[in-house]
Design brief:
The protein is of the alpha/beta class and 149 residues long. The chain contains six helices and three strands, in the order αβαβααβαα. Strands 1-2-3 form a three-stranded parallel sheet. Helix 2 links the parallel strand 1 and strand 2. The protein starts with 5 loop residues before the first helix and ends in a 31-residue tail after the last helix. 19% of the residues are buried.
Length: 149
């Protein structure tokens, strides 16, 4: 979980100082809280991450800022560093697989959570039903300018 982003930013700086070419973080949740001294601006944590050595931060949509804090939602949308991975399709497919009634004429993977996570579930074989979809980098993401080789 990323709270204020301080530890993540400090770690990214340390890694870059040690020679890392890029720093990409993955977190289940991004709370983006502000410290007491920073509470004047709601986007302090996001600004800190944008200005840090972090090249990309991927979070899930488990916390809906559009409903709880529109200022943070807009800051996340504008951030070149923070990318949101949608979880609803995965959760819906998993819930359906768990509750499907198993019969002898079913495909062996019909109620398999593993096959969903691997992208091999029968319901995912059509393009319009794919659960696993790429999270595209934003146009101004620092990862787009990373030199390869």
């Amino acid at each position: 979980m990323v709270a204020s982003g301080g530890t993540a930013c400090d770690t990214a700086t340390l890694l870059k100082d040690q020679g890392a070419r890029s720093v990409t973080l993955f977190s289940t949740s991004g709370l983006f809280t502000a410290k007491k001294v920073d509470r004047v601006r709601a986007t302090t944590a996001i600004d800190r991450i944008n200005d840090s050595d972090i090249d990309a931060l991927f979070i899930t949509d488990t916390y809906d800022y559009l409903k709880t804090n529109e200022t943070l939602y807009q800051a996340i949308e504008k951030s070149p560093v923070i990318h949101v991975i949608k979880t609803a399709p995965y959760l819906a497919a998993i819930i359906k697989a768990i509750h499907v009634e198993v019969t002898c004429d079913m495909d062996e993977n019909e109620n398999s959570i593993s096959s969903i996570l691997r992208g091999e579930h029968r319901s995912q074989l059509c393009d319009n039903q794919a659960v696993s979809k790429p999270t595209m980098l934003k146009k101004n993401s620092p990862l787009r300018t990373l030199a390869l080789g």
